[in-house]
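User: For my dataset I need records formatted as: sequence, then structure tokens, nothing else. Please produce one.
Assistant:
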Amino acid sequence: MPHHIDTGGGAGVGGDVNTQGGTFIGRDQIIVLSGYSGEQLELVLAHLRELLTGGRAKMEADLAARRLHIQAPDAPAVTLSDAAAEDLLSAARRMSGERAYLAALMVHPRYARWAKQFVPLSGQMTALRRPPGWLDAPPEFILLEVHGDGPQRQIERIRLDDVTQAIQKHPALVILGEPGAGKTTTLYRLGWQAARDRLQTGQGRLPLFAPLAEYGEAYASPLEFLQALARRHLGEGFDLPAALRAGQVLLLVDALNEMPFATGRAYRRRVQAWRQFVQEWPGNQMVFTCRSLDYSEPLDLPQVEIERMDDARVQDFLSKYLPTELARQVWQKLKDRPLLALVRNPYYLSMLAFIVAQEGRWPANRARLFESFEQVLWRREAGRNHPDWPGPERMSRALVRLGYAFQERGEGTRLPRSAVQEILAAEGGRPEAVLRLALSASLLDTESPPDAQAEEQIRFYHHQLQEYFAARGLLARFAGGEDLTGLWKQPRYRQEMPDPGKLGLLDPLPPPPPTGWEETTILAAALADDLPAFVAAVQRVNPVLAGRCLLESGAAGEEGLREDLRQNLLAETRHRRVHLRYRIAAGEVLGRLGDPRFTRLEVGGQPVILPPFVYLPGGEFWMGTSVWEALRLALKRELETGERPRHRVALDPFWMGRFPVTRAEYACFVQAGGYDTERYWTPAGWAWRRGEDPGGGPVDDVIKLLRTLRQDPALRRQVDRYFSPQQVEVFEMLLQIEDEAQLRKMVGQGYERERDRPAYWQDSRYSNPAQPVVGVTWYEALAYCRWLAEMMMQEEGLRVKVEGQAEMLVLEGGQWQVGLPTEAQWEYAARGPAGRRYPWGQRWQAEAANTIESHILRPTPVGVFPEGETPEGIADLGGNVWEWTGSLYRPYPYRAGDGRDDPEASGPRVVRGGSWNNNRRLVRAAIRGWDLPCYFFNYFGFRVVLSRQSWRRRQPPGKKGLGSES
């Protein structure tokens, strides 16, 4: 019995249709499988146009046989092969009608699958009886927005269940993701939905898919390119500029990273042309896609990032791709394997499901996944008894030659059929047969060119398949001694890094420009017989790429090679001649390989990572800001945040963590069950962990603010000065709600989070092991410190790295404590005895800190700003993340014995240092921020201090025991 899904509009997809080859058009049934003419296709399309316009049609598909069955009451049923459904777009061009085009698009194999997966927005997808092969799971999306201007500018990330939410909010945006994340299929989905809506209701915009791999030098401008595409589908008479002027177009612009270019400058010029195009045609909707790591030339548009699938989505995906019991078995086996990290990508998971269903094999890494997939497909084709089947070895060799030729050209991912046959002919045999069989295996695909008179185009079904076959060609050349360094060399140094141009508000500092061979090289490494030799060759010109090769190969037992790479990457992050863009990339790979600056050990079988510490001798120092400094700040319209009076404070010696606590360090606490161990938490912290909000929490904070705004109209007018227009709009909306229960519910939704891990723990932007952990409350930060203290004190004679000292610090006798720095300790570390204005010195340096001015828009791996380190060697005290301290926020002067450092006391706690989400004004060493202990943000982190318990605080000399300056 066929499977199908009914939708609100009356469409559905699924099931089995059993037909024979050929074409038949009758009163009660229409079958178009092969041998059809152009006239027959036009007749079929005219029928489909009426069938689909009414919104009563059901669509059922046999994915294995590649058939689509469409039927509606009182109308002939239609059965189409995939090839016939694709060719209907050519018929639409000849018919020169918008409705014909929309109907052809709705049944096109690349678009119609979305009818099955996404039209029933509130329903469930029907499980198929066998793996469908190329369908993608619905991904999660994250929208990056900027709110406000100047000092109030804030970066916000909004989780979206569906990319259409972003489309409704922003008329133009760019979708970013890793290879295989679902970027292109998301565009197909948007195109299908737009075609359905416009055909059935006459409302909405006309979708036009624009693959940028076809945007070659033959087109002088984006408009000329798009006009050619529109004429291909809608006929020569279609007036695209008129449709654009009317705001009637939905442009789906795919693969910015595949746009052909001769030089880097030419590529930047072409991206700039698209920027201008967006500005010149307001009122339309435009969606671009690009690989995240290739987004080196930003479009100045809002960004939507596709997130990797979590456990629940992976299980849901498997349940729809595999029979129930097999899906359960696959998940049980997969959840404990390193392969799970790879197949959180929908494209890879679909391949794994196909392989497991066919043969039950389990590949070790991504390249082996492609290899297994290829072998399964060849065996399937061999079983079909093709009369001219040349065998899997010859087919594979032919595609290796073709993949390398495609990759080598750097001109997009498709070539005319004649050019492809010429490349295949070099391998011997009958190239036309090889091409036909590769198309049958779904390893290659065909596309019609924008110019109706031009030759049919051939491409690999997925760009990653091209890179896999090219990787095998690359390995063959490496084994033959060919010099491949030109393929791997990437800009690293300041003088060679191209200027990214003027960055818009939403544009982060891009990664280093790609060479186009990164993915191919990584896949080659995973297939290499001599991995150390291959990685060493790459490392000589590109340590970051070499590190990625080693990581993604899944190789074990290469510790010597791994350590060599670690040291090389560490040197890159510290080298001031190396450009920040490359230093960040090096730091991210170093975090995944394991940063050698940290000490890894096991305590009672539990992994623990210790940071390197920096010794600070203590003594007396001036804390706070003087009257004259406050006056200077006022003249410059900079903030002074409760920093007076300036006064003398005395401190005992202590050791401060060189870096903020990283994600890798904090993961040990999570893994050890720190969230479920009450002794690490203060009473208020444990109450928070159980779901309470001691002291009221952020919801009460917002409610109090709203009450104050209602009572004080003058203060309400001040909201416009200190908040962004979006925030003002939210305030105005909330102020209209008088029911406090409803108000509390609405406000509370913004502060919902799991309490057994930090907020943003699953967010890929904050998941690199070398990044500071973010999204932690003060309670969580203190609990971590107590857990770390317990781990460290269990190890008698533990040796701890100290920056600038050859010998390690030996901890003995239990006379040590680990905790958050007091506010005084933090400021002393940032300012030093000389009273520096910034951690690095007296003057602001843009290259010294991760702030808004850096355009990074996320936390960076620790230590990639060597210019910003203190003279003592402490990193990231300015920018990157605000850091919780152990002190309550109280007026100056600071007195250690007045209870402000009591961990059991209630009240707001001090944060210091500024963050990636703030501007330079909040990075001064004396700036004081504060928040309630239960607050968490994606720019809040912390660091630890180590001190001797036996030391007592000393009072400095001076009047009344404390010197001060008014």
